[in-house]
UniProtKB/TrEMBL annotation:
Keyword check for Transcription: no
Catalysed transformations (reactions): DNA(n) + a 2'-deoxyribonucleoside 5'-triphosphate = DNA(n+1) + diphosphate
Enzyme Commission number(s) of this protein: 2.7.7.7
Domain of life: Bacteria
UniProt GO molecular function: 3'-5' exonuclease activity; 5'-3' exonuclease activity; DNA binding; DNA-directed DNA polymerase activity
InterPro entries per record: 3'-5'_exonuclease_dom (IPR002562), 5-3_exonucl_a-hlix_arch_N (IPR020046), 5-3_exonuclease (IPR002421), 5-3_exonuclease_C_sf (IPR036279), DNA-dir_DNA_pol_A_CS (IPR019760), DNA-dir_DNA_pol_A_palm_dom (IPR001098), DNA/RNA_pol_sf (IPR043502), DNA_polI_H3TH (IPR020045)
Similarity annotation: Belongs to the DNA polymerase type-A family.
Domain 3'-5' exonuclease: 339-520
Organism the protein comes from: Sphingobacterium olei
Name of the protein described by the UniProt record: DNA polymerase I
Length: 932
């Protein structure tokens, strides 16, 4: 029997990494091999237990796909790959090659699409195909001969899913309807939006009734209330989501049966690799008892004994899950607790009075939606001592619910009582819908852990397991297994929800007690109490306020872009002499390199397809106008689909505004990020891109948009941290820093600096912050490497303090394992003493850059807190509505302009006292573009 196994490489690697990263497995020289070990065990399980005749591992590439081009927000919110995982990837590729298993990639297509296409082709050739992946969207591929192989979990073997299992799991009649459910439900991991208000359960129900997304939209008149409104308003978004969730089956790739035949492992490659990775137990299992690793004292690059030399290997087994530390033995069933249901008027009043005399308490809300601005409260839970908590249910009737919540209003609004929570911004926002303005000091366990260990996950469950040794009740346990009888929070019997909600409050209280001393030990208590926790109120207010969008402006701009795209399309066809799919990397490569012969040395992928990524095309743009047109075409397509057409779909139907969500605990540097929409990604570098900002307008005719932007803040912070006298002098004198740098580097007067010299100096100034090499500078400026090296040498010759700062930052990191900002925010650099030069170099660049980026992040956060306080104290009606990079945006009445300018200048300039002068540029206008 011919069995083809197609492994979803990156999905399996990520799964292994996060499964094993609770207790990192480190070699004697500091390499985290958890992901490598986990992937190896997965591979061995397939080879041993399933005995494939043919096999391949499929990976994505960095090149954009049609999904990215048509919908820029696709996967836009995925966090940057953890550094230690990125370091593991080359080892995993070596491992796969050592097993003589082919690796398949193709620019312009995701691994899902390649697997889907190969699976269908193999099926036609008589293969039984197994797609090994943890991803749910592969359900759409199954057939009589194509199966999903879900990786081993919780000590059980891998699970095989065929048509019956998929139909039962998704409650559908055809596997293709998996796509329809995903189109309605969306996918947070890939940033597929779906239709607001529709979760998994509702999506299944609607597809059962209407058959498809298109069928639902065509029959939306049969729906009622909010659901009808959402389906009609977000119909296009649902169709786009369905398209994004559809796995392509026509990738231009051949099924090379001979290349996929399972071969014998290459022992000569694998044995030294296993030895290098220190896979002692696993090595013996694969190669026999004769396999040994010669131990030697491991030293870091500075000659000192490595910090990790004493760490031994974790015993291994064929299942990934056996590598995990034992699951926490404590849970709600075997742990003493006192969780009290409070559901009578007398008891509710009594609880409110009890809370009123506490110096602090923890609270949590149970609700009907993850969107705090549209959710309803199902219940409130409270805790102020370990092991004891209270749960207050609220009915679905809004008047009755409001009455219950109002009993706690004075407690929540008491400024003397500290409120504790996990992701407490959500609860603050939700309570604001019930006319409750939470006040007083906050303690957010998610944010506390973000300061303690910024590079790891901060969810309550993982924190509880890690710090308390306690496994909380899962939400899936609460609402039942997926299926027709699955309920929602309002359906759950009161005893169960009481236990679940009370446990949340209890765990959060206990985590708060654990994290308080950890914040003190890491000297980040002040940063938490004075910056991160108070910022929660500011961000909640900004999210609640929202931003007004001019839909007519966007519609007009969309039509204009459509015409521009059509003109470009025809121009490209004329220059190419043939019509083709410009969005197809395969067809584009054939036109550019086979027909037009633009580059006789054009590089190809392993599958023989020409590479046509942006970096390739940008390098060719000077050779032919058609390449510049293609880059412009891609840019306009992306602009139209991702912003111009997408922004109106994000408007809240209740308020008519866009309410972005700010994330405090994502970027390890301390920078804020935002989602729905991602404000940081709104284009500003091109004239067309900047036009999007024209659609951001004030909410009233007598209002105006005000934009305040820090000027060259990272360079000023570098001057402050380095105390370089020449750079400090340039900023103090008010010189154009890039012109001043050019004058010093080239040894000329300021008025003699040419535009090209200023451009070179600017590239060096910013390149230094990010650790750019002479090679990198030569590439960015298009100059010989020797000339770039000379410029860098001349730069350091003039700015001795900056070179000293860089050396000291790296030295500090090597000695302490972290660097810190001016306000003591830490960035841990676990690879700073790695014996691997590439890995260590990456950590060293972070050692230089993280204090600069992090201090800039801290500065604008402090400014936001102080500005918001002044707005409230002076009872101004204007609002702070957006934070984007180093810029703050306000919607204010025209008569308050001078008040706001005074506050903003003062607070932004004085946020963190420094020797270097801080400059703030303020502009106003009838829209964001005009103001910036």
């Amino acid at each position: 029997m011919r069995k083809l196994f197609l492994l979803d490489g990156m999905a399996l690697i990520y799964r292994a990494y996060f499964a094993l990263n609770k207790v990192p497995r480190l070699t004697s020289y500091g390499l985290n091999t958890g992901a490598i070990m986990g992937f190896t065990n997965t591979l061995l399980e397939v080879l041993k237990n399933h005995q494939p005749s043919h096999i391949a591992v499929v990976f994505d590439t960095a090149a954009p796909t049609n999904r990215h081009i048509e919908f820029e927000a696709y996967k836009a919110h995925r966090q940057e790959m953890p550094e230690d995982l990125a370091t593991s990837i080359p080892y995993i590729f070596r491992l796969i090659e050592g097993f003589n298993i082919p690796i398949i990639t193709m620019d312009g297509y995701e691994a899902d699409d390649i697997i889907g296409t190969l699976a269908k082709k193999a099926e036609k050739e008589g293969f039984t195909v197994y797609c090994m992946t943890p991803d749910k969207d592969f359900g759409q591929l199954v057939s009589e001969s194509i199966f999903i192989l879900k990786p081993a979990r919780m000590g059980n073997g891998a699970e095989v899913l065929g048509v019956p299992e998929i139909l039962e799991k998704w409650e559908i009649t055809d596997v293709c309807q998996v796509i329809d459910i995903l189109g309605l439900w969306g996918d947070a991991v890939d940033n597929i939006p779906g239709i607001p208000g529709i979760g998994e359960k509702t999506a299944k129900k609607l597809i059962q009734e209407f058959g498809s997304v298109e069928g639902l939209i065509a029959n939306s008149g049969q729906l009622k209330g909010k659901q009808k409104e959402n389906v009609e308003n977000f119909a296009q978004q649902g169709l786009i989501s369905k398209k994004l969730a559809t796995i392509l089956l026509d990738v231009p790739i051949d099924l090379d049966e001979e290349a996929l035949v399972l071969d014998q492992p290459n022992k000569e490659l694998l044995e030294p690799l296993f030895a290098e990775l220190e896979f002692r137990t696993l090595g013996k299992r694969v190669f026999g008892d004769d396999f040994t690793i010669v131990d030697s004292p491991s030293k870091s690059s500075n000659g000192q004994m490595d910090l990790f030399a004493a760490i031994s290997e974790v015993p291994t087994d064929s299942s990934i899950e056996t590598l995990l530390p034992p699951s926490p033995s404590s849970n709600i069933l075997n742990t003493d607790h006192d969780y009290i249901l409070v559901d009578t008027p007398q008891e509710i009043e009594k609880l409110a009075k009890l809370l009123a005399i506490q110096p602090s308490f923890c609270f949590d809300t149970e609700s009907t939606s993850l969107d705090a601005l549209q959710a309803e409260i199902v219940g409130l839970s409270f805790a102020f001592e370990a092991g004891k908590a209270y749960y207050v249910p609220t009915p679905s009737d809004s008047v009755e619910a409001q009455a219950i919540v109002s009993i706690f209003k004075s407690v929540f609004e008491n400024p003397a009582i500290q409120k504790i929570g996990q992701n407490i911004k959500y609860d603050v926002l939700l309570l604001s819908r019930y006319n409750v303005s939470v006040r007083g000091p906050l303690f957010d366990t998610m944010l506390a852990h973000y300061l303690i260990d910024p590079d790891t996950r901060h969810g309550m469950d993982i924190l509880s397991e890690t710090y308390l040794g306690y496994s909380p009740v899962s939400i899936t346990e609460l609402i039942g297994a997926k299926g027709k009888n699955q309920g929602n929070m309002r359906d759950v019997e009161i005893e169960k929800i009481k236990e679940y909600a009370s446990e949340d409050a209890d765990i959060t209280w206990q985590l708060h007690e654990k994290f308080k001393p950890l914040l003190e030990n890491t000297f980040t208590s002040a940063l938490a109490e004075e910056v991160e926790f108070p910022l929660v109120y500011v961000l909640a207010e900004m999210e609640k306020t929202g931003v007004k969008i001019d839909i007519d402006t966007l519609r007009t701009f969309s039509k204009s872009l459509e015409l521009d795209i059509a003109v470009l399309e025809n121009t490209i066809y004329e220059k190419a002499g043939v019509k083709f799919n410009i969005a197809s990397p395969k067809q584009l490569g054939e036109v550019l390199f086979d027909k037009l012969h633009l580059d006789p040395k054009a590089k190809k992928t392993k599958t023989g397809q020409y590479k046509t990524g942006e970096d390739v095309l940008s390098a060719l743009a000077h050779k032919s106008d058609i390449v510049k047109d293609i880059l412009d075409f891609r840019q306009l397509q992306k602009l139209k689909s991702t912003y111009v057409d997408a922004l109106p779909t994000l408007i809240n139907p209740e308020t008519g505004l866009i309410h972005t969500s700010y994330n405090q605990a994502v970027a390890a540097t301390g920078r804020l990020s935002s989602t729905n929409p991602n404000l940081q990604n709104i284009p500003i570098r091109t004239e067309k891109g900047r036009e999007v900002r024209k659609a951001f307008i004030p909410r009233a005719d007598d209002h105006i948009i005000l934009s305040a932007d820090y000027s060259q803040i990272e360079l000023r912070i570098m001057a402050e941290l380095s105390q370089d006298e020449n750079m400090l002098d340039a900023f103090t004198q008010g010189h154009d820093i890039h012109r001043a740098t050019a004058a010093r580097v080239y040894g000329i007067n300021l008025d003699e600096v040419t535009s090209e010299q200023r451009r070179n100096a600017k590239a060096v100034n910013f390149g230094i912050i990010y650790g750019q090499s002479a090679f990198g500078l030569s590439q960015s400026l298009g100059i010989p490497r020797r000339e770039a090296a000379e410029i860098i040498d001349q730069y350091f010759g003039q700015y001795h303090g900056i070179r000293t700062y860089m050396s000291k930052a790296i030295e500090f990191a090597k000695e302490n394992g972290y660097v810190e900002t001016i306000l003591k925010r830490r960035r841990y650099l676990r690879d700073i003493n790695s014996a691997n030069m590439t890995v260590r170099g990456f950590a060293e660049r972070n050692a230089v850059n993280a204090p600069i980026q992090g201090s800039a992040a801290d500065m604008i956060k402090v400014a936001m807190i102080n500005i918001q306080k002044d707005i409230q104290d002076k009872k101004l009606s204007g609002k702070m509505i957006m934070q984007v990079h180093d810029e703050l945006v306000f919607d204010i009445p025209k008569h308050e302009i001078e008040d706001f300018k005074s506050i903003i200048f003062d607070r932004m300039k004085s946020a963190i006292p420094m020797r270097v002068p801080i400059e703030v540029e303020i502009g106003t206008g009838s829209n964001w573009l005009e103001a910036h």
